Amino acid sequence: MRIGRAAAGLAILTAVAAGALLVSVRFGAVSLGLGEIVDAIRGVGAPSAVAIVRDLRLPRAVQAALVGAALSASGATFQALLRNPLADPYILGVSGGAAVGAVSAVVLGVSIAQAWVVPLAAFVGALVAIIVVLRIALMVGQTLDTRILLLAGVVVGAFFNACILLVLTFADVESFRSAIFWMMGSLAGASWSKVWVLALYLVPGTLVLITMARSLNLFAIGEETAAYLGTPVERTKYVAYGTASLLAAAAVALSGVIGFVGLITPHVVRLIWGSDYRFLIPAASLLGAALLSLTDALARTVAAPIELPVGVVTAFVGVPFFVWLLRRRGA
Amino acid sequence: MFQPCRASRTRPSTAARAGRCLWACALLVLLAALGCHGGDVPNEGRAPSTAVSVEDDAGHLVVLPHPARRVVSLVPSATDVLVALGAGDRIVGRTDYDTAPEVADRPSVGGGLDPSLETLVAVEPDLVIAWAEAGPSSLRGQLEPLGIGVFGLRSQDTTDVFGAIRSLSHLVARDSAGGVLASRIRRELAAIRASTVGRPIPSVVYLVEVDPPLVAGPATFVAQIMGIAGARTAFPDLPGLWPQISLEELVRRQPDVLVLPELASLTPFVARMRNAPGWRELRAVQNGSVVQIPPELMSRPGPQIVTAARVLRDRLHLALERRPP
Amino acid sequence: MITWRCDSLVFRYPDARTAAIDNVSLEVGVGRCTVLIGPNGSGKSTLVRLLLGVIRPTSGEVVFRSQAIHRWNRAALAREVGVVPQREEIVFPLTVRELVAMGRYPHLGAWRREDAADRTAIRDAMVRCDVDDLSERLIGTLSGGERQLARVARALAQEPGALALDEPTVALDIRHEMAIFELLRELGRSGVTVLLVTHNLNLAARYADRLVLLSGGRVVSEGAPSDVLNRDLVEEVYGWPVDIRPLTGRGAEAGTPQVVPLRRDATAGGAERGEGR
Question: pLDDT tens-digit profile of B20-67?
Fold first, then answer.
């Protein structure tokens, strides 16, 4: 796509993401006036308002944006690598692995004292899932066969989910809740330290993917074509799968499995602007950031003080929009 | 699957769950600096003599500069305990699941496991009573830096009732009222147990759901109340808290009485149980020995335990008397 | 000058009992049109993929421009060889211009933006393949012939010295098929080495400088079309009775052998001859 059009698109999406972040900070379960929020950000005013805005609302809005961005970049990458429009960030079993890791940590009782052990275990579980899936795919063929990889991901994911269900059958209350959290996803535990950790994965991860954007364009057509047009296929595949999975794993470990975002944002960008990954990766990330921070704001406020599962809101907002876009495109 | 949660009157989502502070991930990428938040306990170096410190049921030391004056209770049984201690006026926030009329006018912060943190902070509590079973709580990581104490309360069985009374009475500086309450409950439970001595001990199954049948395992609060009420569970050998069993097994064991929660969703089934395949093979169904109990009584290890045991004893007694000789 | 050379090339798929490519030695000269023919499963595509270095031979070696093919950097190789693979499945929306522009990737690397020379190469490739009018159309909305031309244009945008095409005219109508063959001839004349796999024996005979007939992973005949396309050999390799007739017509093409497969009931003699062996 033309440079001017790409720049305009990114500018629009940046503005949308920034607007979504502002809305997300503006509205919450507790209604605060604009002045109160501005004061709170500056650190003056009622201590509870300062605490709400600076320690709860801001990190949550930012974390939602980062998770949305990570899932979108990851989903877009998997869709190209697997040449499958249905691919999402969890396609290599990351979600099941994370849930198994988290629940194992709880069952083994390591978690009572240290809050950070469980997300770490979820992260490790996600990595184990990815490695197992890649190993299976390599055992079957000499090279990473896309179809086998897809199949291995689905099978390993199903296996891990079965493990979770087994654990749940005999579960105590604690592991039950742990598993449910990882399966439903939530941003309620957001904090600045998580934001920094996520940023540490997201920024280099996204840059790596943008660097590989032209190769991803080729992968979306076919691996052999990619080789004929100058891509070292196997090496690129490992780096791309690894990076996309790491992004998904970091997002899952911090916020649980939040569905839909990583699947849908790449398609929205494609429908409006086309499929060039040099644009698609940053654009989908921005759109994912906007979508998740906006829907999380809705999840917090619609039924306040009850919080709706953010995945539910994401689907409720995203599906009608996507259907509208598909129809408009078709017309 | 979610039934056990319904029984315990908490919602299944565990948003408030679990430490997700990924300092460990930070470690992975050598961001050691993040570790500095570790163990943030409001720690007044020169704590005045009124300071209270209690180890909570998750093994975490909770230190308050003064006895709690503004409490948000995320655990309904803790709300009941605080009310029974005469500290109901210190409750500034409750959950949607609290039934105590004394706190009905306080603002709700949503669910006990996934409260709206903003709403919670807005009522400016100095202490939050949270579920210890929710695991390593990110709640603590989020609230303690704001100077709000978080007490993780275990609320699963009868011993937790007394643990809760002891801890909570100390946190609100009502230790003596706590002692009085605890011994009154002990006395009344002993009386209920004594009243059943000499009677035959019926085998009872508590069905939290019927299709498929989900029953209370032997480790649940329900099974313990059965014991106090002079009954025994028909499934003393089951693993897990709320296992799913087959109807065949239920028929094989032929419990003397079926107990179900008094829920609108179950009452119609109880009415047509006599004709339901499988269920009609149960002698308890044929004899009309089917009892319903308000679910909040059977799921809340608090001061209401006395009422729960008494109601269960009386209804079991009635059901058994109705039996044809 | 030699573009591709291989000696005693053997390739066996894992767990396969017989070799897919069995002791093939071949030379493909600069600026010539070499056409690989042979029945389904005779190893044509496998041989092309070996020559392009995307699969590794079990034994033997492929040399491209006097360097072993697997020692070529893929991007450098892609600046030398344009490829139109047999099948591509384009599942995401992509315009013709975007597809053809991918031919410049080997020249652009990860970051460099298209400059004037790149844009010229893309436009020229589209014009040569007659798809410049379609440049903003989505690939999914094109006819089969237009899509193939767009893919050939992508290979031309690479500005390669050699071109490999695996059955580029399958399921195309006469106009599109002829357009591609004419294009290949022009390219050959301008010094581009063309390596083509096709099932169209008659066009192969008319456009090839050299035919290579494969059967069972071996080269059973190679040389000028009039040498390779003799009736006994074609009938044996393809297992079907044929007539071979010289092309009657104008100019240089006259006399080129043309293969006419026979109906089973057409000539009793032909059928008997076919089955009699």
Answer: 332 333 333 323 333 333 333 344 444 445 889 999 888 889 999 999
Closest residue, chain A, to C84 (C-alpha): A225
Please, which pLDDT band fits residue A117 given cuts at 50, 70 and 90? confident
A4 touches chain C (CB under 8 A): no
Tell me: cis bond preceding B212? Omega within 30 of 0 counts: yes
* B/C Cβ contact: 3+ pairs below 8 Å: no
**Which amino acid, residue A245?**
S
Chosen for mutation from C72, C84, C102 (greatest number of chain A CBs closer than 10 Å) is C102
What is the per-residue pLDDT for A115? 62
- Which tokens hold the place of C182? 């004419």
What pTM does this model have? Answer: 0.83
Q: Do chains B and A touch (3 or more CB pairs under 8 A)?
A: yes
Cα-trace Rg, chain B? 22
Q: Note whether B325 contacts A: Cβ–Cβ < 8 A.
A: no
Q: Reply yes or no on whether the pLDDT at B7 is more than 60.
A: no
Nearest chain C Cα distance for residue A238, angstroms: 17
Note whether B118 contacts A: Cβ–Cβ < 8 A. Answer: yes
Residue A275 has pLDDT above 80, yes or no: yes
Task: Write down the ipTM of this complex.
Answer: 0.90
For chain B, positions 211-240, list CB contacts with chain A under 8 A.
239-240
Do residues C133 and C164 lie in contact, with contact meaning Cβ atoms separated by under 8 Å?
no
Q: How far apart are CA B58 and CA A282, in angstroms?
A: 43
pLDDT in the model for residue B49: 57
Q: Which of A244, A228, A229 is nearest to C110 (CA)?
A: A229
CB contact under 8 A, C106 and A276: no
All residues of chain B having their beta carbon less than 8 Å from the beta carbon of residue A117 are: 19, 24, 136
pLDDT tens by residue, A53-80: 988 899 999 999 999 999 999 999 999 9
pLDDT for B11 beyond 70? no
Show the DSSP H helices in B62-137 as ranges.
76-84, 117-122
Does any CB of chain A come closer than 8 Å to the CB of residue B124?
Answer: yes
Distance (Å, whole) CA B91 – CA B69: 8
- With H, G, I as helix, E, B as strand and everything else as coil, classify residue C121: helix
Question: Residue C74: which of A3, A227, A275 has the nearest Cβ?
Answer: A227
A154: exposed, middle or buried (Cβ count in 10 Å: 0-12, 13-18, 19+): middle
- List of chains touching A (3+ CB pairs within 8 A): B, C
pLDDT tens digit sequence for B258-277: 999 988 877 888 888 888 88
Whether residue A281 lies within 8 A of chain C, CB to CB, comes out as no
Contacts of C163 in chain A (CB under 8 A): none
Please tell me the predicted confidence (pLDDT) of residue B26: 31
Q: How distant is the Cα of A307 from the closest Cα of chain C, in angstroms?
A: 36
Q: Which two tokens stand for residue B180?
A: 């009085």
